[in-house]
Amino acid sequence: MGKHSNFLEEIKQKKLTNYLPFLVLIVLSIGLEIATKGVLFSLANIGTMTNTIFPMIIVAMGAVFVYSHGGIDLSVGSLLGLCMMETLLIVGDSNVLTAGKMAVILLATIATGFLVGLLNGLMTAKLKLQPLIMTLCMNYILRGIVTAVTELNPAYAPAQFSRYDNIYVKFILILVIVAGVILVFEKTRYGKNLKAIGGNEQTAKQSGIKVDNAKIAAYIIVGVTVAIAGSINVIRASMVRANTGSGFEIDIFLALLLGGIPLSGGAKVRSWCAVIGCVILVILESGLLLCGLQHEHITILKGLLFIGMVAMTFERSRGEAIA
Prior knowledge:
Blueprint: H1 2-35, H2 43-68, H3 76-91, H4 99-125, H5 131-150, E1 155-156, H6 167-187, H7 189-199, H8 201-206, H9 211-237, E2 239-240, H10 248-258, H11 272-290, H12 295-312, E3 314-315, E4 320-321
Antiparallel strand pairs: 1-2, 3-4
């Protein structure tokens, strides 16, 4: 009877852990909606939040593949800035964005994202560099390129470029990417292999999984998602400065943690958690801004929240991350 009771208690605890991000989202939404006197979920602010969350969800869904095997990618912020800059350089002074030019932009930026992801993957998987160190170095390299090109002369989009900013297209693109990632990550052998690597890399190798190839592919995927997000997001931003995308990598990291994705990866990773985490973070930021806080104060709070989330997902007794 005691064993049966313990088993039921364990199941209840696991279910509570799985639903915790949803509970946080509901409580946070209600609290901030009251605090902002109904402004948070007004049509105007929903549009603003949608534009903010668009690149975040796309990149977070790609990042799931990296974080699920216990990796990390801190180069996504500078890569986003680089792809946005590349888009504006291709557009030039033209006010017309034809289907052909958009195809060229996507191909060029995706090639850039692919190359950066490939380099990150090769250096971490084949040369065994620590992902934290490698992607941080890549972040500085890409940031240096963006700064060198835009520091004195920021890249601006043509005057009427913003007319191509369509929230419905963004929404459809998000749905397609989220559905595709969930399908691949949750239903295919590749997704299961990444979880197995995150659970125990040596066991995964012994079971015949090509660990290095799986890791390289994961970094390529996140690189491609950053490229897609950057090439579309620049239409709204209309300009690229030296600091464009700065801090975006921390937002992605924090969103994944808020969604309940464990630092160590493994079987507990769920791709949809990335969406929930992004929504929580964007609602939190928007609500705090509407409550009168400055961006600088919110940055401090995000740093404190980041420390808290890392502490909560780290089991000190075993020295490894848990869900």
